[in-house]
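User: Working on a comparison across species. This one is UDP-glucose 6-dehydrogenase from Streptomyces aureus. Can you predict its structure so I can line it up against the others?
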Amino acid sequence: MALKITVIGTGYLGATHAAAMAELGFEVLGLDVVPEKIEMLTRGEVPMYEPGLEELLRKHVAGIEGSTGRLRFTMDWAEVAEFGDVHFVCVNTPQKHGEYACDMSYVDAAVESLAEHLAKPALVVGKSTVPVGSAERLAARILELAPAGGEVELAWNPEFLREGFAVQDTLHPDRIVVGVRSDLAEKTLREVYATPVGQGSPFVVTDFPTAELVKTAANSFLATKISFINAMAEVCEAAGGDVAKLAEAIGYDERIGSKFLRAGIGFGGGCLPKDIRAFMARAGELGADQALTFLREIDSINMRRRGQMVEMTREALGGGSFLGKRVAVLGATFKPDSDDVRDSPALNVAGQIHLQGGQVTVYDPKGMDNARRLFPTLGYAESAEAAVRGADVVLHLTEWREFRELDPAALGDLAGTRLILDGRNALDPVLWRKAGWTYRAMGRPAA
Ligand code: UDX
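Assistant: Here's the predicted structure for UDP-glucose 6-dehydrogenase from Streptomyces aureus:
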């Protein structure tokens, strides 16, 4: 009989995983503790913007016309425990308030609430990004709490999806990593992934700590690549070099690779910043803090890019105060194709200029509601054109396709001054300069 799957937590990770599992033919039950989320998902609506996810969900959510009916949602732990053979734990692990460490309270609560109801054999599979050592601790907790005792096992199966590509990354993962303690757990996970999702993807079987570490190591490496190229941008700025050309040239070396070498205002979002901090905190607890001191530098290079963008703007405006200056900001989310504004470099830059007296007007294709909630005192406009009207300077801070497709000539007629600063190195300088704009980008010569 086919395995029955449950997914606990319906954020970016859980909602996508649940829909993807249904797409692969499994019966899936998703759980969340937030009633509004469950109501939305049951209507086939996604609580966040993620390309392709709503379509996938509507294809499978029970009760929606023409759906397969394979996907349902609930708030009832007993129902989940009774239904599932494999339970994926997909709740979030944010940074603790005022600390670097990871807040494990949601994972702990989810595993405990589930375990208390597990009266039949099951595999609990952690997908959340957690400090190394968590799986071992949680396995012991399950053994303590589950009525089925040793018949309930834990496995760790980190998720590598990127926001904006969540559906694609879940259905076609680069690799599948599983941390297991028994042949049965491995066999069960092979069965889950013996579907199109796993075909062609390397399947790495390992122990708990390695599986947990793969995720934090991968994110640390990505953060390091971005901060490396941003450090090169600083040197280029000092030496008059062009970091975009430099990145292109070093990227041709296959050992280096061209991805994640786009210099700009740096990384943000709900993962990379908090993951490298939590990793440092955990290494400290383990007495291995020296091994990760370089991540402090990665973090600090990243954070100072935001201030450098503010200073670049000040200089471009002739120096001095921002008082009375009109600043148009294109982009609020931490990356394009997402409505996520968590730790967004774009909003940070906009906020700094606003707090220093600038008249800031922000426009973002999908992130306006979230940005308004997080930073209600900033000015907002309903289109790029409206944001740019009368501006002394335009800042391009999130590289949405919509901004690359703007007509610089038409926009120039609206702006007070044809001055654009590209914080993402993503616009075509030739195009903008041809339309009479002064175009500047981080780490590149002025003209
Ligand atoms: C990341 C990892 O990529 C993913 O594998 C993991 O599962 C979760 O964390 P995500 O947070 O969605 O995914 O964003 P990502 O695409 O990695 O971008 C992170 C940040 O880096 C963004 O703010 C982006 O603008 C920035 N970035 C990325 C750069 O500044 N330069 C680059 O070259 C690439």
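For your comparison, note: Residues 160-163, 219, 222, 226, 260-262, 264, 266-269, 271-272, 334-335 surround uridine-5'-diphosphate-xylopyranose (CB under 6 Å).

User: Helpful, thanks.
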